[in-house]
Every structure is written in structure tokens, then in C-alpha cells.
């Protein structure tokens, strides 16, 4: 019933608001049903009112975008920089200017009310019971005071509602424009910005519009009101008023100076915040690598250093805020003291009426001149910096799509001359860094050409090298905005070997993919990626190495059934390192160092004698198997077993076998571990005193906090006394500055605790929490903690103590005043409790609905090329707008419920109680961020990095590894993915590890590195790994990971973050991995700053950097996790030689992606469904004809199988001799 009741209310609410008159205080009654429901149960997203049409993200964004586009065009003609400030003013000045009338009327009432009050007091001073006319006039003044109070209450809240809504509109419109721009950024522009900077623009910079709109009108109202007050004061007390106004006039230029300083600090703070969020984004994305390298301390130092610089600027800004606030609270004391000192010295006699009028007028103008006016200066200064930063981003280069054959300019990419005809398959091969992916980028228009013409006739579609999926169902990832055609969809699933997976997954193709594809294995992501392209039914297909993430059998199925099957009548460009498929290509293009060195058919190139022949083995004796019916392809099954799709760094899923539905069911082994992104947690109930204690204790010790309490009490006592003006000033400034110091330190401490907690939490946390959710904590929530919460706390404490002081002084003179105060206090407490039940839920909803905005941005930037290739920008923009609208629903309710509360307070109690309650409200809402924040400082922690039990300095000396009855699961309630594992890896032994997808290969490594805690015993040189610290364990093992991760920073930092090696060591290792020449060509060589995530290196080159890291560590144990998936066979061979030479004395465990790279291992471990199926010398295993290894080798084709058998035999002979 509750739900039904609310939904009907929602319909009424929307209908009511859309038809309400602008001046009618419509926020008073329509929220009542929502409060009733909020009081009975927790509010959910479904309970929120639909966003009003005029507040919709698309409508607002496109309106501002039109103004911006016009300004850019006009500026280009006039040869000047476009002005974003001018655009905002043009778009919103009319609606915002009208609100200035509210401010003007409100401030006029504030000035007139003391005059009415003064006249009323004069009536009592000259009281004559027989003077009826004077009594009637006094009634008129009393009515004037009443009407003023009512008018002030209504106008004040109506004004605040409308200006905050105006700020929301500008913010929403700007976010729309920023995201739209992000979808259009060119490759050059992406190098000039980072995900961190864009997140910061969306989280912190745009919030300045919410703040500046509140105070902006006071820039012109303040001076006007000051002039009017001077006139009235001159009339009341003569020229003495000038002494008091002189103090006020001195404060105004001082605030302007403060404003400039705010602007400077804000600019520097924003740059540091960009850097911190960018680093956080890389940490969250690459957390597995950071943990396995034991680099947590290095990144902690890096983030803490940036945060220290950021907080130093925030502290200076906070001190300025403290001075502003202190000047507001002590100004009245100084002004009144100086005014009446001069008044008496001029020989005048003080009367109650004159004092009351003067004090009231000063109070009215003091609020504007010493609080609102400086706040306006401060917010305008900060907004100018944010506008400048947003403008700089909006002016970045955009991608130039070329559908025509017009020549285009800059960037050096492959000189290629080729015409791709319909129904042709063009294979592109070449070594790492040859420009294969860059060729596809040029065709897509992502990279501009230095010279020449790219002509594209028809629609393109693209499969990226590193599979990209977005949060949603598998079906939505494949359809990608297209209508569902069931027959076509089934054909695509079958061709992409996804049918069996859909049957095994709990919800089939409606299974939700988590952030970064956290519910799919690497192979499944690759096939979903391919299926998305195939379903689009485009004219031309660009396929960037889609076969490297699947095993040989599935790879062959994809090639036959999909690339040469469903797509056989389409022009296709296939970048590949899988040379066994080249015979089926109509044309082959060989690239080297960005040049086309050979081009032709398979036969022509074999005869040409170019490098191409070195990349291939002669395969004449290999019998080409028969292709599938209707598939016109000659597929040679030799040379390479491609990478099996195991768990990627962002995944904790070991999914179904990478096989199609027609494969024998007996071959399918499946371990499914679902780790969908969990809904964001929302704490419920009241925010207890313990939370505030944690907040304050984070910033200072007990002694400092006691000093702070004492200072606050002394400041209020001396102010209440009235005679101690100097003491009031000193204590007022001291308490304000100390308060800000403590609270900014609290923010710093809580940030460090949260970051440490994030680094120490197990990797599963990152699998079930989207990047956007974590970045939200480190961007928007931190921003609130840094600036808004300290200001709100100080404001609340000062107003609260002031009111206590007023009540205490009044009660000491007239004790009966407590009679109305006590019932009013009871009513206030009841109303407050009723209000906070709903208000806290709304603020929590506002916080949780913000995370999807950042997650969507982060996901979009990862898949930018795919989105643009599929022309899906508009759809992703609409999704972003939908996320924004949902957040606007929560934000709008936050604004209106605040007004609901304030209006009722003004109706039931005196104005001072209203101010206190509203400050309390602000404080309460701010601490919702604090509760979210503290939650992240108390995450589950993995085992300690160091323990009391330390291994010997030279441990491990031999590299013996023993698994004894090891069971392993990724979380306590998840399925067991390694079962009763018993294995011994001997010292200096080279062991290959193979198995189908989901067999448990990567889980074995996770258990070894303790990414989750295994059951049973793992011994390294006789020492239990569970008894030593994680860093002591992880630093003694080297890993070359499946997904190469580079971090923003120099090449030196990426190789050696702790500065433990000399330049000579670094150059030597780069030479050994064939990267020396590449790095030498960089502008500053090893000191060159890499682009975000190392995107200016190819995937293969990034893999070589990871190999260099492993060589530098010189550990006794090396783990290679499918590390050569993205390199060509020749580079693979070089890497294998380097590994054999450099790690001759080490124990090496290699997860196989190409059987020829592990067939010469001392032993091979074959895993199946989390158990050891076979473990022996390769030659011995190849004699077992029903064994898994034998079957895998046979799938390679006769020639390759014979070659592998011969290699295995030679290894056995060598071992025996």
C-alpha cells in the first residue's frame, strides 16, 4: 500500500510542479506524503519524483551546447579565444536576473524592519495612554514588523530554492557538454588530458556552479544596501555612523583581496586533485599487478605526496575562510563599539530607541557585507578557475572522421597502399610495434595521416585488441543498440562459440556483466567483443587480433565459422599473430616499423624471400583439414596454440570452456564464479556521536580538542559580556583558525586511512565495486570533506553558541522568556527527528546515484574507439543523461526538502532558532559523505604486509615450491576453484602449465601470491607462505602478467619505482627485451612521461616492459602468465631465449599460450576443473594417447604435432644425459 500510495503521489507531484506558478511556494505541501513514507521506511530510487522536463540533462546540455558552438564560431572569425563565461551568462542571465528582484526586496525588508522596530520602541519611550493617534500608528508599525517577518521567511526560501535550482541546471548542462566532448576527443587530445582530470571536472569543478549562484546577486545588492543603511543611520545618529561604516568599507576591499587568493589556491588545488584522481584511477585498474609486485608502498607514497601538496593549498584556503567567518562574527562588536564611542564623544546622549535601530541596521548590513558579499567574491573567484579549466578541456582537439577521399594531415603511420575489395580477407602481420593496430586506427579515423588518402566506402565496425565490455547484460553488449532478431542472434552466438557459455551461465545471455567485464573470463570477453561486431552487419570489418585470447580449438572455430563463415561475403582486415591462418587470406600485408615491406598472396610472399619467410615455418607437408560446409576457406592448423582465455586482471571469474555448442560435452569443464557488481551500500539510521568523534579525533588529539572547546566557550562568554571587545576579536579569530586547522587535518587523515584501507583490501573488493564508485569516494566525497564540511561545522558551532548566549543573556534579564522557548524547543526536536529520517535517505540517494555517472564516464573512455567505430556516441550520451537525470531527481528532492524544513521552522519559532536548525541541517547532510567515507576506512583487510616472522635475507635460495592439499576460492562463500592440489616444483625446474579455460591455471598463481588466502599448505624452500608477510612473499617472486599494465610516470619509474637500480642496469635490460631503440627515440629517453596507462606504447611493447621488470628483480622464482599473447612469433622466440638465458638458475612456471613455448619444459602440469590431470615430462605425457596434452598437440596439425613431439623427445634425451 505504501508503494502504491507513493506512486500516485509522484504523479501528482510532477503534475503539480509543472503547472505551478513561479511565485507560489509550492514546496510547502506536496512533499508531505514523501515525508510520511520516509518516516516509516527507507526511501529507494523508485520513490523519487521524475525529473522535470526543463531540468532534463539532454535539454539543458544541448541548449548550452548551441550557445557554446556559436561562441566558438564567432571567436574563430574574430581571431580571439572563445569565452565560456560569456556563454553561461548569455544562456542563463534572463532567468537568473529575475531572481535578483527577490534579493533586492528581501534586503529592502531587512533595512525597513529595524526602522519599524525603532518607531515602535519610540512609542513606548514616549508612552501616552490618551494619544489614540499614536496608538494607531504603533499598530501600523507592529503590522509592518509582522508582514516583514512573514515576507522575509517566504522570500528567503523561495529565493534559495530558485538560485540553487539555477546552479543545478548550469552544472547538469556543463556535465552533458563535458561528456559529449570526451566522446569526441582525438588521440592527441587524449594525451593532453586524463581520466582523472575529466572525473575531477565532473565531480568538483562543476560543483562551483551550485555554490556561486547562491551568492552572486550579493555582489551588487551588498553595496546598494550599505548605501541605504548609511542614509538611515545618518538620519538616526548623525555623522557618528560613518565611523562604524568605515569598518565595513575596510572589510569589502579586504574580501576582494581574499577572493584573488582563493582563485590562486583553487587553481593549484585543482591541478593536484587531477593528478591524485588520475593516479587513483590507475591504482584501481591495475590493483592485481600492484599487489603481485608488492608496489603498494610506492603508490601510497606517490598519492600521499600529491595529497600533501593538495592539502597545503586547501589549508591556506581554509584559513582565509576562517578569517572571513571570524570577521563576520566579530564585526558587529567592533562596529557598535566604535560607532557609539564616537557618538558619545561628540556629546550625544544614548537612548534605547537609537541603539536598537542602529544595532538592527548594522546587523542587517553586516550579514550582507561581511558574509554574503565575501562569499560571493570567494565563489566567483573559484568558479572562474573552474570555468577556465572546463573551457581548456572543451577546446581540446576533436577527432576528424573521414568518410570521403579527401587528403588529411599530421602523424606518422604506416605508408600503405592497398585496396580492399568485397569478400576479401586481408591479413596484416608484423612484429611488435610495427603499426598493425595503428593501421586500423587510421582507417577508423582515430589517427590522422601524414600524407595520402584513406577512402572508406560503407560502414565500418571494429573489434579492439583488448576486449572492451560495458556494464550491462551480455545480450545488451552484443546487440549494442540494435533490435533483437532472434534467428540472426542465434547464428552470431553459434559462430562466436558463445552458445555453450550462455547455457552454463546462470542467467544465460541476461547475465549482468560487472564493471570492466568482471563476470567474464578473458576468452568470453573476446568472443562477446567479436559477436558485437558480427551482429552489427556492417560493410567492412576491422579485426584487431581477436583470436589471441582463445585456445586453439575455439580459435579455429571462430576463424572458420565466423571470420570465414558468417562474414565470408564481407571485406575483412584481420590483424593477427596466428600465422597458421594466413593460407586462408586472399591478401597478406607485412608491416615493419610503420612501413609495408611486403604485400601479396600467401604463395607470392613465400617466394619473395622477405622477412615474412622467417616468420613462417614451411608447412607444405601439413594437411589442411576440411573446412566447415559452406565455408570457402583453406585453414592450416599449425604453428600456434593461441592464448587460452583465463581470468583477466579485472576479473575473478573462471567461466565455461571456450567452446562452441557442437563440441563434445565430455570435453567441457566449467567453473563459474559470479562476481557481479554489488549495489552500492547505503548506511541507514542516525549518524551517531561516535562518527563525529572519529572525525574530530582524526584531526587532533584530545588536548587540542579540549583547547578548541575552551576557546569556543571563552569566545562566546566574552562576546555575551559585551564589554571585552579586544578579547572578543582575539578569541573569535583564534577559535575559527584552529577549528579549520583541525577539520582539514581530519580530512587529510581520513583520506590516508581510506587509501591505505583500499590498498590492503583483498582484490575481490575491486571485482565487485565499479571504478566509478571508488573514484566517487576519492573525488566528490573528498571534495566535500575538504571544503564544505569544515565550513559547515564552524558555521554551525558559531551560530549555535551565539544562540545559547542570546537565550542565556535574555533569560538572566527576563526569566519568563524561557516559558515559550521550552515548548518551541520540544516542537523543533520533534520536527527535526521527523525531517532527518527522510533527509538522510535523500542525501544518501544523492550520493549513490552520483557513482553511476563516474562509472559510465570511466567505461566510455576505456571503449572510446569501439563506441565511435559503432557510431554509438548518441546512445551513450543518452545513457549518461539518464544517469544525470536520476541524480538530479535526488538533488532536486534534497533542495526542496531543505526548504520544507526551513519554512516550517520559520513558521513555528523565532528567526534565531531557524538559523540554528538550518545550520544543523546542513551539517547533518554533509556528514552523510562522512559516513560513506568512514565506511571505506574500515574495509576488510588482507593479511599483513610484514609479520614478526621474517624469512632469511637470501630466501628463497633454491626455489623449491610445494603444494600440499591446497584448496583455493576467491572468497569465503564462493566455489572452490583449486581442489586438493598436490604438486612439487623442483629447484631450477622449468614447468609449463596448460589446461582449458576455467581449469584453474591463473587461480594457481593467485594462490601462490595469496591474492586470496588458500587452504592447505604452500611451501617455498620449506617455509610456509601463510606465515610470512605478503610483501616478504610477493617481492621474492617475479611475474610477467597476462595483461600488461603501465602507469603514468616516467619509463624509469615504471621499471624501477623504488630507485634500486643504476641507469646502466636499466638500459641493459631494455636492450635485452628489444626496447632500447624505442626508448632512445623518446624525447627525454627514460625520463619521458608516459601517457595514461602507457597508451603511447603498443600492447606488445607493454608486455616487453613487464618482462624487463621481471629481469630487474633477479628473483629465484618467475611466473609467466600467458605473457606473450600480444607479440608476434618472432618476438615470442626472442622473449623465450631471453627467459632461458636470464632465468637459467630460476624456477620458472609458465602458463602456456603457445604450446611450442612450453614443450621444451622439464615437466608439464595439465589442469582440468581445478585438479591436476597430468604432471610429467612432455615426452612421457605425449605417449598417453587419451591424455589431455596429447589431444591438444594433435589439434595443432600433423606437421606441428610431429615437431613438438621431436622437441619433447630431445628434452628427455638431454635430461637423461
Automatic annotation (TrEMBL):
It catalyses: urate(in) + ATP + H2O = urate(out) + ADP + phosphate + H(+); prostaglandin E1(in) + ATP + H2O = prostaglandin E1(out) + ADP + phosphate + H(+); dehydroepiandrosterone 3-sulfate(in) + ATP + H2O = dehydroepiandrosterone 3-sulfate(out) + ADP + phosphate + H(+); an S-substituted glutathione(in) + ATP + H2O = an S-substituted glutathione(out) + ADP + phosphate + H(+). Residues 394-618, 961-1194 form the ABC transporter domain. It is a multi-pass membrane protein. The chain crosses the membrane at residues 96-117, 137-161, 214-235, 241-262, 323-346, 352-373, 698-718, 724-744, 788-810, 816-835, 901-924. Keywords: ATP-binding, Cell membrane, Lipid transport, Membrane, Nucleotide-binding, Translocase, Transmembrane, Transmembrane helix, Transport. GO terms for cellular component: apical plasma membrane; basolateral plasma membrane. It is an enzyme of class 7 (translocase). Signal peptide: none annotated. Coiled coil: none annotated. InterPro entries: AAA+_ATPase, ABC1_TM_dom, ABC1_TM_sf, ABC_transporter-like_ATP-bd, ABC_transporter-like_CS, ABC_transporter_C-like, ABCC4_TMD1, P-loop_NTPase. SUPFAM superfamilies: ABC transporter transmembrane region (SSF90123), P-loop containing nucleoside triphosphate hydrolases (SSF52540). One of its GO terms (molecular function) is ATP binding. It is found in: Apical cell membrane; Basolateral cell membrane. Interacts (via PDZ-binding motif) with SNX27 (via PDZ domain); this interaction accelerates MRP4 internalization. This is Multidrug resistance-associated protein 4.
Amino acid at each position: 500500500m505504501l508503494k502504491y500510495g507513493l506512486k500516485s503521489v509522484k504523479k501528482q507531484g510532477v503534475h503539480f510542479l509543472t503547472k505551478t506558478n513561479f511565485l507560489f511556494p509550492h514546496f510547502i505541501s506536496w512533499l508531505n506524503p514523501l515525508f510520511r513514507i520516509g518516516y516509516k521506511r527507507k526511501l529507494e530510487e523508485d520513490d523519487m519524483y521524475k525529473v522535470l522536463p526543463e531540468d532534463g540533462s539532454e535539454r539543458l546540455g544541448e541548449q548550452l551546447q548551441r550557445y557554446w558552438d556559436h561562441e566558438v564560431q564567432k571567436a574563430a572569425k574574430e581571431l580571439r579565444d572563445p569565452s565560456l563565461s560569456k556563454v553561461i551568462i548569455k544562456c542563463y542571465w534572463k532567468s537568473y536576473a529575475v531572481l535578483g528582484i527577490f534579493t533586492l526586496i528581501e534586503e529592502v525588508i531587512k533595512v525597513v524592519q529595524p526602522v519599524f522596530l525603532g518607531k515602535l520602541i519610540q512609542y513606548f519611550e514616549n508612552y501616552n495612554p490618551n494619544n489614540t493617534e499614536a496608538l494607531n500608528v504603533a499598530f501600523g508599525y507592529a503590522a509592518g514588523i509582522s508582514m516583514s517577518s512573514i515576507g522575509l521567511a517566504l522570500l528567503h526560501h523561495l529565493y534559495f530554492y530558485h538560485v540553487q535550482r539555477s546552479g543545478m541546471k548550469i552544472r547538469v548542462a556543463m556535465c552533458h557538454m563535458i561528456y559529449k566532448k570526451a566522446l569526441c576527443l582525438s588521440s592527441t587530445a587524449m594525451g593532453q588530458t586524463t581520466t582523472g582530470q575529466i572525473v575531477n571536472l565532473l565531480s568538483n569543478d562543476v560543483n562551483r556552479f551550485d555554490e556561486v549562484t547562491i551568492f552572486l546577486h550579493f555582489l551588487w545588492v551588498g553595496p546598494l544596501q550599505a548605501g541605504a543603511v548609511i542614509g538611515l543611520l545618518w538620519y538616526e545618529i548623525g555623522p557618528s555612523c560613518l565611523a562604524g561604516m568605515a569598518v565595513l568599507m575596510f572589510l569589502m576591499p579586504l574580501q576582494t583581496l581574499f577572493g584573488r587568493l582563493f582563485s590562486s589556491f583553487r587553481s593549484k588545488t585543482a591541478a593536484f586533485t587531477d593528478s591524485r584522481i588520475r593516479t587513483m584511477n590507475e591504482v584501481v585498474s591495475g590493483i592485481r599487478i600492484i599487489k603481485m609486485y608488492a608496489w603498494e608502498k610506492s603508490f601510497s607514497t606517490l598519492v600521499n605526496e600529491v595529497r600533501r601538496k593538495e592539502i597545503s593549498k586547501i589549508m591556506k584556503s581554509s584559513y582565509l575562510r576562517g578569517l572571513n567567518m571570524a570577521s563576520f562574527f566579530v564585526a558587529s562588536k567592533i562596529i557598535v563599539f566604535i560607532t557609539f564611542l564616537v557618538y558619545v564623544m561628540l556629546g550625544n546622549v544614548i537612548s534605547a530607541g537609537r541603539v536598537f535601530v542602529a544595532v538592527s541596521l548594522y546587523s542587517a548590513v553586516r550579514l550582507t557585507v561581511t558574509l554574503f558579499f565575501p562569499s560571493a567574491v570567494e565563489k566567483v573567484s573559484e568558479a572562474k578557475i573552474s570555468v577556465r579549466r572546463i573551457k581548456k578541456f572543451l577546446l581540446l582537439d576533436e577527432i576528424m572522421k573521414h568518410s570521403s577521399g579527401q587528403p588529411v594531415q599530421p602523424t606518422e603511420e604506416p605508408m600503405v597502399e592497398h585496396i580492399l575489395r568485397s569478400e576479401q580477407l586481408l591479413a596484416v602481420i608484423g612484429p611488435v610495434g610495427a603499426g598493425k593496430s595503428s593501421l586500423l586506427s587510421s582507417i577508423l579515423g582515430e589517427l590522422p595521416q601524414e600524407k595520402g588518402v584513406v577512402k572508406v566506402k560503407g560502414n565500418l565496425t571494429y573489434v579492439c585488441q583488448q576486449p572492451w565490455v560495458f556494464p550491462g547484460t551480455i545480450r545488451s553488449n552484443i546487440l549494442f543498440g540494435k533490435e533483437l532478431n532472434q534467428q540472426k542472434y542465434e547464428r552470431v552466438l553459434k559462430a562466436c562459440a558463445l552458445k555453450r557459455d550462455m547455457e552454463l551461465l546462470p542467467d544465460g545471455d541476461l547475465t549482468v556483466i560487472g564493471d570492466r567485464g568482471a563476470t567474464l573470463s578473458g576468452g568470453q570477453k573476446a568472443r562477446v567483443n567479436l559477436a558485437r561486431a558480427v551482429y552489427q552487419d556492417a560493410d567492412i570489418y576491422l579485426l584487431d587480433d581477436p583470436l589471441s585470447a582463445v585456445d586453439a580449438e575455439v580459435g579455429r572455430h571462430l576463424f572458420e565459422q565466423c571470420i570465414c563463415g558468417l562474414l565470408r561475403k564481407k571485406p575483412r582486415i584481420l590483424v593477427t599473430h596466428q600465422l597458421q591462418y594466413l593460407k586462408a587470406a586472399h591478401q597478406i600485408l607485412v608491416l615493419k616499423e610503420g612501413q609495408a615491406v611486403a604485400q601479396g598472396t600467401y604463395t607470392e610472399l613465400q617466394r619473395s624471400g622477405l622477412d615474412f619467410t622467417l616468420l613462417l615455418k614451411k608447412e607444405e607437408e601439413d594437411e589442411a583439414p576440411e573446412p566447415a560446409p559452406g565455408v570457402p576457406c583453406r585453414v592450416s592448423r599449425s604453428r600456434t596454440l593461441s592464448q587460452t582465455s583465463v581470468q583477466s586482471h579485472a576479473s575473478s571469474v573462471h567461466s565455461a570452456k571456450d567452446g562452441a555448442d557442437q563440441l563434445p560435452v565430455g570435453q567441457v569443464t566449467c567453473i563459474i564464479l559470479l562476481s557481479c557488481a554489488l549495489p552500492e551500500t547505503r548506511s541507514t539510521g542516525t549518524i551517531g556521536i561516535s562518527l563525529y568523534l572519529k572525525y574530530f579525533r582524526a584531526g587532533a588529539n584530545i588536548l587540542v580538542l579540549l583547547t578548541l572547546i575552551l576557546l569556543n566557550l571563552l569566545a562566546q562568554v566574552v562576546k555575551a559580556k559585551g564589554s571585552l571587545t579586544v578579547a572578543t576579536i582575539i578569541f573569535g579569530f583564534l577559535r575559527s583558525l584552529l577549528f579549520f586547522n583541525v577539520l582539514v587535518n581530519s580530512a587529510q587523515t581520513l583520506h590516508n586511512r581510506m587509501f591505505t584501507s583500499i590498498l590492503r583490501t583483498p582484490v575481490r573488493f575491486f571485482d565487485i565495486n565499479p571504478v566509478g564508485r571508488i573514484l566517487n569516494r576519492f573525488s566528490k566525497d573528498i571534495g566535500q570533506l575538504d571544503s564544505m564540511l569544515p565550513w559547515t561545522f564552524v558555521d554551525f558551532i558559531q551560530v549555535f553558541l551565539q544562540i545559547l548566549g542570546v537565550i542565556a543573556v535574555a533569560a538572566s534579564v527576563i526569566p519568563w522568556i524561557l516559558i515559550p522557548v521550552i515548548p518551541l524547543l520540544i516542537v523543533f526536536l520533534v520536527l527535526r527527528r521527523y525531517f532527518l529520517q527522510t533527509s538522510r535517505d535523500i542525501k544518501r540517494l544523492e550520493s549513490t546515484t552520483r557513482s553511476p555517472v563516474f562509472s559510465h564516464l570511466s567505461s566510455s573512455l576505456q571503449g572510446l574507439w569501439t563506441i565511435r567505430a559503432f557510431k554509438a556516441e548518441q546512445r551513450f550520451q543518452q545513457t549518461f543523461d539518464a544517469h544525470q537525470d536520476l541524480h538530479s531527481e535526488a538533488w532536486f528532492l534534497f533542495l526542496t526538502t531543505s526548504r520544507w524544513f526551513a519554512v516550517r521552522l520559520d513558521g513555528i519559532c523565532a528567526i534565531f532558532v531557524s538559523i540554528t536548525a538550518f545550520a544543523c541541517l546542513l551539517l547533518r547532510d554533509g556528514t552523510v559523505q562522512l559516513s560513506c567515507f568512514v565506511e571505506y576506512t574500515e574495509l576488510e583487510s588482507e593479511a599483513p604486509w610484514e609479520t614478526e616472522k621474517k624469512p632469511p635475507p637470501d630466501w628463497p635460495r633454491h626455489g623449491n615450491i610445494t603444494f600440499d592439499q591446497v584448496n583455493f576460492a576467491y572468497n569465503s562463500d564462493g566455489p572452490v576453484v583449486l581442489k586438493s592440489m598436490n604438486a612439487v616444483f623442483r629447484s631450477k625446474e622449468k614447468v609449463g602449465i596448460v589446461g582449458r579455460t576455467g581449469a584453474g591455471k591463473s587461480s594457481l598463481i593467485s594462490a601462490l601470491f595469496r591474492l586470496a588466502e588458500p587452504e592447505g599448505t604452500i611451501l617455498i624452500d620449506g617455509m610456509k607462505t601463510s606465515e610470512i608477510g605478503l610483501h616478504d612473499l610477493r617481492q621474492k617472486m617475479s611475474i610477467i602478467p597476462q595483461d600488461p599494465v603501465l602507469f603514468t610516470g616516467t619509463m624509469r619509474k615504471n621499471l624501477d619505482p623504488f630507485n634500486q637500480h643504476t641507469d646502466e642496469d636499466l638500459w641493459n635490460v631494455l636492450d635485452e627485451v628489444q626496447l632500447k631503440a624505442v626508448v632512445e627515440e623518446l624525447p627525454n629517453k627514460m625520463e619521458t612521461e608516459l601517457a595514461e596507462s602507457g597508451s603511447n606504447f603498443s600492447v606488445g611493447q607493454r608486455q616487453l616492459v613487464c618482462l624487463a621488470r621481471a629481469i630487474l628483480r633477479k628473483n629465484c622464482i618467475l611466473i609467466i602468465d600467458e605473457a606473450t599473447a600480444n607479440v608476434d612469433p618472432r618476438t615470442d622466440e626472442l622473449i623465450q631465449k631471453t627467459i632461458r638465458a636470464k632465468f637459467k638458475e630460476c624456477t620458472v612456471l609458465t602458463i602456456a599460450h603457445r604450446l611450442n613455448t612450453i614443450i621444451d619444459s622439464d615437466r608439464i602440469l595439465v589442469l582440468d576443473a581445478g585438479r591436476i590431470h597430468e604432471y610429467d615430462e612432455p615426452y612421457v605425457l605425449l605417449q598417453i594417447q587419451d591424455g589431455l596434452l596429447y589431444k591438444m598437440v594433435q589439434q595443432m596439425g600433423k606437421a606441428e604435432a610431429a615437431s613438438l613431439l621431436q622437441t619433447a623427445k630431445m628434452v628427455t634425451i638431454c635430461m637423461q644425459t
